[in-house]
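Model: You mentioned two targets. I'll fold them one after the other.
Researcher: Yes, keep them separate.
Model: Target one:
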Amino acid sequence: MSLKLHSILLGIALLYTILPILLAFAGASFAQLCGCEPNESGFTCEGRPFLSELFSVMAHLHLFALITVPTGGIASLILGVSLGVRFLW
């Protein structure tokens, strides 16, 4: 594999690893900016049920990190070692 392809795959693996966590933080931040109130099931935005649902889903996406962090970390490690072995040695 070329250096460019290795770099692209490593970037995708890292994004796959951290994206659910970033989306959860973004959902909570945007909900606060829009004046939504947190409750036990997510967020409630008065008069905007679509935003309530969207921010609640975004805030619960951190649960996917239980899957993506280990698998993305393993993929990143494998790609990093492969890149190091192939192009640095």
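Model: Target two:
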Amino acid sequence: MSRVLIAALCLTLAAPVIVTVTPTSADAQVMAGRGASRAAARRNRPALSDREESRLYAAQDAVVAIDQQIYEIQTAAEAAGGLTPEQQTVIQQHEARKAEHQSVIDRLEAKRERRTS
């Protein structure tokens, strides 16, 4: 009788170990979803920070302003009969500034697209 009691006691004490050692379908689901929280956090990141968005909008505004200045110089030159060397120099400087701002725009828009896709 004592052996039966000892065997029952051993089974009772070993039961939690046996249950936790054998994998179940719930364990497999938990194991598969471990990286999901990090991936969701990565997807939910804002496309650009506030500072980057401000910089993007400022660069876009600068490009529009530079285009307007170039247009004004060209229309004034057409009315006067042609571009002077000074006007050509100013237009080249504006185009160089425009290219700098456009590269900032391209970089930030590419970053936005990477984060949203």
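Researcher: Noted. Anything on target two?
Model: The chain has a mean pLDDT of 80.
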